[in-house]
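Q: What does the assembly look like in three dimensions?
Context provided by user:
Components: two
Sequences:
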Amino acid sequence: MPPRLNLFNARTAVPVFRQTSINVSRPSIATTINSNRSTRHGLKTGLSSSTPMQKRYNSSASGGDNSERPKAPTEDPLPHVSEEAAEISKIMDKKCDGTPASPELEQGTPISEILQRDKEAQKHMPKVMQDQIKSSTGTRSFSTSTRRSQAELHGQGKSFDEQTAAVMASMISQVNQQAEEFHDGIKFDPVETLPKTENFRTRYDSLLEQFTKLLMTDGKLSRAQKDMAFILDHLRTAPPPQPNPKRPLLPGPPAPQLPLNPVLYLTLIVDSVAPLIKIRQQKGIAGGGASVQIPVPLALRQRRRTAIKWIIDGSDKRRDSKFAQRVANELVAVAEGRSGVWDKREQQHKLGIAGRSNLGMVGGRR
Amino acid sequence: MVSSFCWGCLTRLRPTPRAVLPPTVAAPRAAAFHTSTVRYALPTKKKNSLDGPPKYRQAKSARMKKKKPVERARPPPVGERKALRKRIVLSNPNALEVEGMQDFTSETMVDARLRGSILGLPVPMLTQLRAVEAFKPKQGWSIFRRPGTVVRRETLELGRLIDSISNEGQDKGRSVKKIVTGVRGSGKTVHLLQAMAMAFTKQWVVFTVPEPQDLVIAHTGYAPLSDETPNLYVQNEATATLLSRTVVANEQVLKTLHVSREHAALKSSVKAGMTLEELAKLGIQDPAIAWTVFQALWAELTATSAASGFDKNFKPRPPMLVTVDGLAHWMKNSEYRSVEFEPIHAHDLVFVRHFLGLLKPGTGKPALPNGGLLLYSTSASNNPTIYSFEVALKQIAARQAGLNASAPEFPQADPYSGADKRVIDAFDSSKPTVAKEGMLELQTLGGLTRDEARGFMEYFARSGLLREKINDEWVGEKWSLAGGGVIGELEKLGRRLRVTD
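A: Here is the predicted structure of the complete assembly.
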């Protein structure tokens, strides 16, 4: 067993010893790894726990040292060339492997930790250690620097920590409560996160904005907004829709309540007739220049866009003199299941189901 | 793969005679280092396009498919679009009924406790209010269950004024003249509407000019009044419309009143026992005599006593409310032209001249001898800029503040700005000589107070149109956003839909 040295004290007090302690305190890469190898051997035997401990302390101490004091030029003698090459190749190999180089594997694990994890091993551990665990009174006849294992092995210390933590937590909560009572330095309640529509750039509902912009022709947004206001007012004042049981709207509030929230009403209408897929005509899969219908899933915005396009197209066939009136009437027709938009959606879905078999061809191609 | 030939062999190769080489037609043209295949390639086939031979004198660019316009069998009938535009909807059956909403009555209109709440317009009165065109198409009546207005400070003052004029007391029979101004959306038109509603509850006679602009844009017929006064012009159709408005709205009152004097111009048609309703209907039936009938009706309504021989059915005349909404259009040249093709000033139209003349203090007896209220409002959205009118309004305010017209601080028109003297004179009313006549006042409507704004927003919430927690903080925020409680802006904020998700 190597002698226990308090390296900090030794170095600061007796600078003459520095040269002698070099090999221990600041090992080169090669020596560190060499020693680790030996440690792993030691683990297998499972006898000595002090060696890895000491290595660990050494390495950490050396790390601290590096930053602390300037390096002397002759302090760090290089290892032999062949030795270094061997070590470097080892390091490189490891990196190439991609195995995570855990510090535990490199530096070794204290036997006590392994024993703590492994219940089976605990039964077969040396008698000295078993005795040590059994007679855990908190006082020891010997001194040791393994503070870490001590804290983990002794359950009493743990409970003590928990107690202090609980006391601290109660104190903190008490202080917080007092602060809340006095409102010291807090004049107003904490600010809640603003809803999205409070920002003036996104002040309209997303569907509303999309619909308005699709109503727009020749870039006349203001006119489209007027039309949208008309449509919303129409939805607000028109009699509530009589839902068709065959073509129900998406689940939402009951129909008589819909006009009170026209934006929700509009959203329900559009989302109810929005198709889930589009049909892509793809050439060159089947060969011979024939195109094959491939169903492609749509995102929410795309689905809504398709539905709005259909609704506006459907409204073109109406006879009312005002564009906004036509669209509004078409929307109510959709809500009541009378509109041709529903047929379009069903047709699209039917094609999509028929084209499901073609999806395999796409995958095979890739 | 390395070729088995060596360089020397390759260079010694002589070009092979043509006949030996097979014509390799199938070889691609892309191999540029072969010349032989290109030489022996078959001539490229002409592409047989479906359209036939190439078109040389036509555009070859890609043509966008144009959507065919849908055949709408008939254009909308004449007046349908305008009717749709001018349609006034006063009820939304989908909106919730507001619990405990009170109506305009003679009690509630003076009740200061109701300040900040919404008073509904009584349903029987709606036909009267529609007849005098108190509602405007762009006002947001259509989203509520039934029309109602906010009781603000000015409303209560108006209610007390109307109450005091009609009730027995010191102020009975007083006549008050006001010009209502204010920023856009501050509730000037609705203030007039409230005055009309109060006047109807107090059984007054109401005359209104809802659209002064219509009288000066040359959309109705005009003619010189008579040979003696070739500079004055009469608008018979417009006058007939005014008479019909008045008759429909004030039918109950006019039916109880009877003709009290002889009318020289209408000698043939006016009989002794005629009611005023019948008198007014003469003008509606025959627009040619509409202006004469209107003058006769006005003379009857301003009569304080009956002429001799007509005493039998005479009843004291009720007070009158006269409103004009959008005064500035009457302060410039009209679109009408005289015979010399000179523009006619709006003050030369007898209709306009009559209503502007009421602002002047009457000589001997007040302009409204039986008491009443003149409420003329300006408009802020449809408003021609007229410098002399602005100066005239400033002068009214200065006179109201007690400034003398000769004082140096008294606002005067810039002598080089070409101010219209007739406009400034029209409002230049000296101190009235008659006791019961008030001075011309200027009333400026501002924003609501925060409490009134809160009542207004709660009305939205209780109608189910607004989904917010109405607390002081939220109302204060909206009050500030609305430019200090301008009610038109508050209404927009109340209608604004916010779906938080």
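Follow-up: Chain A has 18 helices and two strands.
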